[in-house]
Design brief:
The protein is an alpha+beta fold. It folds into two domains: 243 residues, 3-Layer(aba) Sandwich (D-Maltodextrin-Binding Protein, domain 2); 215 residues, Dipeptide-binding Protein, domain 3, CATH 3.10.105.10. Helix content is 28%, strand content 22%. It contains 16 helices and 21 strands. Strands 11, 12, 13, 15, 17, 18 and 19 form a seven-stranded mixed sheet that branches. It has a four-stranded mixed sheet with strand order 1-10-9-8, covered by helices on one side. Helix 10 packs antiparallel against helix 12. The chain is globular. The relative contact order is 0.15.
Length: 520
């Protein structure tokens, strides 16, 4: 499965094929979303494994991917991105136009769409949703280019940008639309929800620590789903989840304990798939700390990283080596002429000599440690990398860190194992490689004025060929500068009941939609 398609950008410009609008009589909204009594007895619904606590049903409260598992069933967005092709498709918005200066997007919305509380979806809801998202820190990566949204009619609105941003539609695909009246009256309540999606909350079945049940919303604009209910079961122990799949208590899970994957497949009792995950494991290098501010030294660290062995040790081979923090399937990602940092001890030693360390380097002498997340595959990455570096004469001590996220954002670290998800467009990488991302998600504190300028050029132009050329140059500069050591792109193993027709996509936040599933 791939995301890289030139059609991504073309679709961003043309965006939505005109769709026939549907109408319905206005209905006075209820004070709270209608709650059904649940599915018929003969339908057992679907039980889905969730590996962490669902912290909130408020779609603007966080970017934790486990929350998205539930949000994706309850909410819809203005547009969607095809995870296989990267193309943009209409959802709640059926068409749009762009002003000549590229700063105003004018949207026309679908009519007759209902929220779970029976209120009709209107432009005021879209405007409220986007303006609310702009105010929420957790949404800043997707809204930092936005200025304001204003209704121009019952089913139309304008979105004004602070700067030109050609990849705006892919950002809108990350912003769920909520009902203005419901959310303004229930602000900051984590356990309620009101969207237009195919599923709605079931009364008495909301406990983010143990399970959440949603039931079919029959008035969904796309028609009723085949599966009548979905129960998200929170299980923090992967082995317990595996056992529950085998006993039939679970119907679908992503196998986080990789060692459990093959035994499940060997039973022949389940359907399964491996999808290329939009997740990259890497080492962030604090480029402001001596001697890590030495480019030649950072290049030596990259050459001395045996990524294939690290992948085997840390993820049992269910991953592929990475070149950057984005995947090669992202629009604009092009590594064809970039420096090849494949494992090469001779080149590593040459770069060490160029950096002024002909006899190798002991990072203990500089109070430099490699921080890792304890009890995770990151720990295995750190241990394997330590061994790999030692072959080139590079010594580093490891340190288990419970504060790696805050340390990384504040720059109070030297080396740290991390992971992040890429998007369908290289423009998003400005948050990881741009100077403005320092103190946010540019954990390497990398700053290159040329790269900043190129990202700005890529945002400003509407010519896809120009954007591809710009991002190719960014790839070449960043890869050569080595602010990180990209390790691997994970593959995600999914396993499910043989009688369940399930579809899975290569996406961390949007890997599956139960609306598309059915029982045989």
């Amino acid at each position: 499965m791939t995301i890289k398609k030139l059609a991504l950008f073309l679709a961003c410009l043309m965006l939505f094929a005109a769709l026939a609008a549907c109408t319905s009589k206005d209905k006075e909204p209820d004070e709270t979303p209608a709650i059904t009594d649940g599915p018929a007895e003969e339908d057992k619904g679907v039980n889905v494994y969730v590996e962490g606590i669902i912290s909130s049903l408020d779609p603007y409260s966080s970017i934790e991917y486990v929350n998205w598992y539930v949000w994706n069933q309850i909410y819809e967005t203005l547009v969607t991105v095809d995870a296989e092709t990267g193309e943009i498709y209409p959802a709640l918005a059926k068409e749009h136009t762009i002003s000549e200066d590229g700063l105003t997007y004018s949207f026309v919305l679908e009519e007759g769409v209902k929220f779970h509380n029976s209120a009709e979806f209107k432009a005021s809801d879209a405007v409220y949703s986007l303006n609310t998202a702009m105010e929420k820190p957790a949404m800043s990566s997707w809204t930092n280019m936005m200025d304001k949204a204003e209704a121009t009619g019952d089913y139309s609105f304008d979105l004004t940008l602070k700067r030109q941003y050609a990849a705006l539609p892919s950002m809108l695909a990350q912003l769920p639309i909520v009902n203005e009246e419901f959310y303004s009256e229930n602000d900051n309540q984590y356990d309620i929800a009101c969207g237009t999606g195919p599923y709605m909350l079931q009364e008495g079945k909301v406990d983010p620590n143990t399970e959440i049940t949603v039931v079919r919303f029959d008035d969904n604009r796309k028609g009723p789903a085949a599966i009548l209910s979905v129960t998200f079961k929170v299980l923090t122990d992967a082995s317990t989840a595996t056992i529950q799949l085998e006993t039939g208590e679970l119907d679908f899970l992503m196998v986080y304990s990789v060692s459990n994957y093959q035994p499940l497949i060997d039973t022949g009792n389940f359907n399964s798939t491996l999808v290329s995950a939009p997740h990259t494991a890497y080492i962030s290098i604090n480029t402001t700390v001596e001697p890590l501010d030495n480019k030649a030294l950072r290049q030596a660290l990259n050459y001395a990283a045996d990524k294939e062995t690290i992948t085997l040790v840390a993820y049992e081979g269910l991953a592929v080596p990475a070149h950057m923090l984005c995947n090669e399937s992202s629009f604009g990602a092009n590594f064809s002429d970039a420096t090849d940092f494949s494992f090469d001890l001779d080149k590593a030693k040459d770069k060490l000599t160029e950096a002024g360390f002909p006899d190798g380097i002991d990072f203990d002498d500089y109070d430099i440690e490699l921080d890792y997340i304890p009890g995770s595959y990151h720990e295995k990455i750190a241990q394997s990398l330590q061994e790999s570096w030692s072959q080139a004469g590079i010594n580093v001590s490891l340190r288990a860190s419970e504060t790696y996220n805050s340390d990384s954002a504040a720059g109070t670290y030297t080396l740290v194992t991390q992971g992040s998800s890429f998007t369908a467009d290289m423009s998003f990488m400005a948050t990881m490689y741009g100077t403005d991302g320092i103190d946010a998600t540019n954990y390497a504190r990398y700053s290159n004025p040329k790269v900043d300028d190129l990202f700005a050029q890529g945002d400003a132009t509407t010519d896809s060929a120009e954007r591809l050329a710009i991002y190719k140059e960014i790839c070449e500069i960043v890869i050569d500068d080595c602010p990180h050591i990209p390790i691997q792109h994970k593959q995600m193993p999914f396993v499910w009941n043989k009688d369940l027709n399930a579809v899975v996509y290569p996406s961390n936040d949007h890997p599956w939609y139960v609306y598309e599933w059915s029982w045989k």
